[in-house]
Amino acid sequence: MSFRVPLLLVFLAFVQVILAGSPHPSAKYPALIDATLMSLSEGLESKSFSSVDLVNAYSARISEVQDDFHAVLELNPDALSIASSLDRERSRAHIRGPLHGIPILLKDLIGTKDKMNTTAGSYALLGARLPQDSTIAKKLREAGAILLGKTSVSEWANFRSFNSSNGWCARVGQAYGPYYPGQDPWGSSTGSAIGASLGLAWANIGTETDGYMVIPVSSHLDTIGTLARTVKDAAYLLQAIAGKDPNDNYTSAIPNVPNYVKACKLSGLSGMRIGVPRNAIALGSTTTFEPAQSTAFEKALSVLRNAGAIIVDNTNLTAAEEFWTSSIPGQVVSADFLVDLPKFLSKLNTNPNKITDLSSLRAFVQNYPSEEYPDRDTGIWDVTLLGFNSTSPEFWVAYQKNLFYGTEGGLLGALDRHNLDAVIMPADYSAHHFAAPVGAPVVTVPMGVYPAGSTIVKDPRGLVERAEGIPFGLSFLGRRWSEEKLIEMAYAFEQRTNFRSKVKPYKVPKTELRDVVGR
Ligand SMILES: *[C@@H]1O[C@H](CO)[C@@H](O)[C@H](O)[C@H]1NC(C)=O
Ligand SMILES: *[C@@H]1O[C@H](CO)[C@@H](O)[C@H](O)[C@H]1NC(C)=O
Ligand SMILES: *[C@@H]1O[C@H](CO)[C@@H](O)[C@H](O)[C@H]1NC(C)=O
Ligand SMILES: *[C@@H]1O[C@H](CO)[C@@H](O)[C@H](O)[C@H]1NC(C)=O
Ligand SMILES: *[C@@H]1O[C@H](CO)[C@@H](O)[C@H](O)[C@H]1NC(C)=O
């Protein structure tokens, strides 16, 4: 089914989480909060533990912190039997690849044909059945990954309400970030980011539209990405999902997929030309300006310079101000949603609530009490229903304009004018907005943390947006298909800073492999 897939957005930390990792080469049981693919594979190879043990341990960790963070919507009831069959394959020396027998979590937009639901966090699609796996789910299964569960989302990928909150969905309620009580978890790949922060699985899959959906938001903009503890682990996961998809013609321009794992080298910043689009950063800063972030950003520039990068300042995005206030990007996403949603729904094998298009979806949500309407309105859909759709001539005008915001007027223009390999921005300052119009990749790594004494800032629903101990990230944005280069740079930065080791969730799950092995 035309689930939009392996476009290559590696967005490590859609929430402000992610992080460089510390290996535990000698430990028999790697600490699961930090366990890298390498340490898990070594343990499986040496029979210190099995994939069944990993499923048991990660499932227990998820349960332990579910009431605190609401990171997961459901677990795969078949995960243990899948793990067991992958253990048997391993014992016959049949190893499918690096992900063999490794549990991962999927955002609840990623379609799976199994006992799990695919609902975008809403009751509307609960109980619906898909005719087949999304391409990404199929590829992950073939690579030997265990699809352990579905993570919570900002409902409908934040494409429903003008008055909801990051990380809220009807099925599990408000999710929270793990670095401060009541932390705004961002989103919409909320649970996948929390999962990465707490070691609820080896790694996680998220999505970006900016709008977005694999339950579609916008076929012109949706992309899938990885959220992991380290750049290298994100690279391993990207390797398994990247490539052309016959069900998704937007992927037909993807060149040969390079070796992303080999791109993880310490010298990755040497000679790279990296731009700083001050005007775009200033736009984000008007609402989220905070000295800790700008100080950390300037320090990051020194790290990059010391690692051999050439920093080119003031590589401004010429149409950034116009883009920032333009209604065009919203029109494009809305127009796509009007067409892509019914197309997706028409493929369902069962559709218990008979949702066939946006009107029937809106009617369901407005009448189903757990969807918390009208407190959480359907404003985005109300506006969408009044507009044109992606088959109309108006769409092409809007779409071309939106492309301009990503090409000459935006990211690609700046890259070309200044002959850059990437531009960087504080991740909070909406790095994803600037890459999304052209489906360009972004890699985000930790850059710093709000220090002791930071003023606590809350959103209108009381979620804590800023407080001591909450981390924030640095984003590298590049040309289409430049993931390899972005990984080189992000890895080299991560290895030199290791901010991951400097941030700690205020509560972490305690179950470790030693608690489950042999039980
Ligand atoms: C999917 O939703 C149905 C309907 O609510 C429920 O019975 C089932 O347990 C859910 N699947 C999982 C894996 O939770
Ligand atoms: C938006 O949500 C807030 C918090 O629940 C509520 O106080 C406010 O009335 C809502 N606004 C609208 C327009 O629904
Ligand atoms: C992709 O493009 C080819 C060639 O134009 C067309 O035959 C095919 O139906 C398209 N596939 C999808 C899923 O749109
Ligand atoms: C880039 O933007 C910054 C911030 O808006 C501004 O101060 C600077 O003059 C601009 N530089 C160029 C070369 O346009
Ligand atoms: C798109 O809009 C046109 C009118 O401009 C209409 O005929 C068509 O049915 C709409 N398609 C969908 C899927 O809403």
From TrEMBL:
Signal peptide limits: 1-20
Signal listed as a keyword: yes
Annotated Amidase domain residues: 53-218
Keyword Cytoplasm: no
Keywords assigned by UniProt, alphabetized: Signal
Stated name of the protein: Amidase domain-containing protein
Lineage: Eukaryota, Fungi, Dikarya, Ascomycota, Pezizomycotina
